[in-house]
Write a structure and sequence with these properties.
6-stranded mixed sheet, alpha/beta, globular, 2 domains, Rossmann fold, homodimer
């Protein structure tokens, strides 16, 4: 109970965020394939956040955050650092509220993410992922130009916004009269899964909740076991650009620790196989970092036989060459 | 008025079909991309029937038809001929009602369509597209095994079922407070567009309605102009396997003639470009025949600048090699 009191957000925050983003963010579909269910031996439902505005769930948190700032007359301009999905979410929300956005992106981000962020009207500043400190660049730009820094995950309004994904899943499952056994989704900084975990557990008290991470970036898995935040010391190559974060947030970790059973690890081959399955069976284009949850099912890390499982597909911003790789499997 | 009285179905039939398929067919999302809108200079909303059960709108008509037969105690087994989407729709509906299905498919149908039809429990009989008569095979099987033939489009219950696509679009547009200027979608036999046209015109009296067809299969365009059904004399190669029909139906044509402004023609290159746009901008896997409407916009046959346009993306059953071709553009 002591620990509960210290959590950054609760179910009510997510309900409030849900009212705020209503009519702005899409209610994305919860999809399933009878043939895929047959192959997997269980019922697996996919929350297609790849179809969300700007191609990922990030629009939810960004819109919630900027909307609150606008209501408080504190929205003049924003700056954010992001590998590309938070970038587009913030850029689209800033465009909606008519304020300038500057986004700091790694120079090796997928081309589609850099181009779309620019097309949404944001100013893009590229940095070298392994040489420069994006936090420092963000702080500097924020102070120099009086811009509000919009953090990618370690922020109560961002977490509450991303949590509306889980809330929508709960409503959709209830409409189908389904009680899920478990849910799994990507963890980078932990915003999506911490917020969604609160909403899902509120509706389904017995649900088992899991994160999924790329090999070499299993910090959430290790942190949940250790009971304290542990970072990734190295930065190995991974195709999952959206979720190769160094560590989870100070606000997201206590929530993940409380609600998640753990996190599963997947390698690039599992991820490509999951992308191919999304294209062939679900007719969805999902980016590498977006389908790590399905990858954990395909590599048998998460057992789904005779269970009802929800998989969050978090984004769909992927260059053609990567889709080719997946289709070549 | 004379002509109206002769139409096979009306708005009420579509409402009834809608009640019948409710909870069985998915309410597929109506999606748009701000960036694509920006590029096209107008607002374009996409009805993603590629995400429908069995990967195409065909499930709607098949379920409606089989459900009515079941209620009348006339459902013992079914036979259908199809290039693959109607096949899967009928197979899935037959599986739901627990009756056997035999599907006659061309031997050159996409592998994914043949395999999925079998996986759904149907018996598949392959025939040579240019040598054998699928109608004759269907009649023979129907009589020999006491199976009800489920026509692909020339049937009132099938048309009403497919028309629920247009009905859903109308509801979704109304929820967005949008009045569309125009809508476009694929025409093979005309079931989808005839049914949807009735529903859309009922809700939006000024909407302009268009079909889209592959080069060499522009029979609907010519038939609408001529005021009588004209078939395609030749069978040129086309990647749009789902809609390379010889002519529209005796029941669908009068509806198409009454409601449609005409039909646009697209070639394979336009279609591949549309598939690439679907993957990159909408995050959707759409099959060649499914995105001829978007192809007609991309090749400037249908002007969308400063207009609100609805495009029906009718299916997503496509083999990886075809997706590769589109991504290579």
């Amino acid at each position: 109970m002591q620990f509960m009191a210290s959590l950054a957000i609760n179910y009510q925050h997510i309900l409030t965020a849900s009212q705020r983003i209503k009519g702005h963010a899409l209610v994305t579909p919860l999809l399933e394939s009878p043939l895929l269910n047959q192959q997997l031996g269980g019922r697996v439902l996919f929350k297609a956040e790849s179809l969300q505005h700007t191609g990922s769930f990030k629009f939810r948190g960004a819109f919630n955050k900027l909307s609150k700032l606008a209501d408080a007359n504190q929205l003049t301009g924003v700056v954010a650092y992001s590998s590309g999905n938070h970038a587009q979410g913030v850029a689209a929300a800033a465009a909606y509220f008519g304020v300038p956005a500057t986004i700091i992106m790694p120079s090796d981000a997928p081309k589609i993410k850099i181009e779309n962020t620019k097309a949404l009207g944001a100013k893009v500043v590229l940095y070298q992922r392994h040489k420069e400190d994006r936090d420092a660049i963000g702080q500097q730009l924020s102070q120099a130009h009086n811009l509000t820094l919009i953090p990618p995950f370690n922020d109560t309004d961002i977490i509450a916004g991303q949590g509306t994904t889980g809330l929508e899943i709960a409503y959709q499952l209830e409409a189908l009269n389904l009680i899920p056994d478990q849910a799994i989704g990507p963890i980078g900084g932990g915003g999506l899964m911490s917020g969604s975990a609160i909403a899902l557990r509120h509706h389904f008290s017995d649900i088992s909740l899991w994160g999924a991470e790329p090999q070499g970036y299993d910090d959430a898995a290790r942190s949940i076991i250790a009971g304290t935040i542990i970072g990734n010391d190295h930065s190995p190559a991974s195709i999952c650009d959206a979720i190769v974060t160094r560590k989870v947030g100070a606000l997201t970790f206590p929530i993940l620790h409380k609600y998640l059973a753990g996190a599963k690890t997947v390698n690039d081959q599992h991820v490509l196989a999951a992308m191919a399955t999304c294209m062939q069976q679900l007719k969805l284009v999902v980016e590498p970092g977006g389908c790590v949850g399905l990858a954990a099912i395909l590599n048998h890390s998460l057992a789904v036989a005779d269970k009802t499982t929800v998989v969050i597909l978090s984004g769909g911003n992927v260059d053609p060459a990567m889709l080719d790789l997946a289709l070549a499997l």
